[in-house]
């Protein structure tokens, strides 16, 4: 229970009551608000004070909904406001969608997830129940790098200002601990890149950028692997790699966010995985029929490393037909895999 309040704070106390106890499905009458003011603030209030203060809140710009009912007193008929509630920016289904996205994020620790969800829950009434209590949040697949949110802020600022950034990059050692990536001289490697965009893919954030020494090549780096990020005074390189850059096209071509060139690929696949193919490559993929009604042919421009990895994932249902160099690489990989399992 709150400390007993002064009548001077009545308008703020009513606002707190509405924010905590009301939404479109839980509306409060004047009597409800009077009762809650007594319970929460040990305050006795007259009915006419409720409507007057709520009207003041509405005039001040607060989104408070209500119903109007006709009240007949003799020959006089007046409209009376009742059933008050806060009109939320997010409804409960939208908040649940956002909290579920946080719960299943591969980037955040359990502590970070709980903190964010608690903030989201404050955007609704006390009746909103997230999925937090129904899901076990394991830290087994989350990043161990606590610089994630700081990285996002630094990279976003650098992109806005058109400046380069420098940082170190983390990788795992045999003890499953994150360690600094090193160069050929066994020294901690320093990256200086021109940041272009941040994207979310497969539950992780990636920085799309170009290196100084690879002016014409686009790279995708995990944001949660970046550490010691710092904005430089140097302007980003205006290289031809980003001249006609298209984010949706890049995401489709790099389905696993692997770096490297994209090329035109043709592959056959069983019709029963058509939805998976469209999910991965988007609706712009070219589809053709084959002589076998159960087999479809697809043409797409995609990163070679990514399509090779994808083709092995769907190995029983997919056959890459071209380019021949890619077919050869897949055959060699399958041959080596076969040796391992003999």
Provide keyphrases for this structure.
12 strands, alpha+beta, 342 residues, Arc Repressor Mutant, subunit A, four-stranded antiparallel sheet, SH3 type barrels, single chain, 35% helix
Description of the molecule:
- With 342 residues, the chain is of the alpha+beta class.
- The chain has 4 domains: 7-86, Arc Repressor Mutant, subunit A (Orthogonal Bundle); 92-134; 149-243, SH3 type barrels, CATH 2.30.30; 262-341, Alpha-Beta Plaits, CATH 3.30.70.
- Helices cover 35% and strands 27% of the residues.
- The strands form 3 sheets. Strands 3, 4, 5, 6, 7 and 8 form a 6-stranded antiparallel beta sheet that branches. A 4-stranded antiparallel beta sheet has the order 10-11-9-12. A two-stranded antiparallel ribbon has the order 1-2.
- Strand 6 (204-211) and strand 7 form a beta hairpin.
- Helix 1 (10-21) packs across helix 2 (30-41), helix 1 packs across helix 3 and helix 4 packs antiparallel against helix 5.
- The radius of gyration is 29 Å and the shape is elongated.
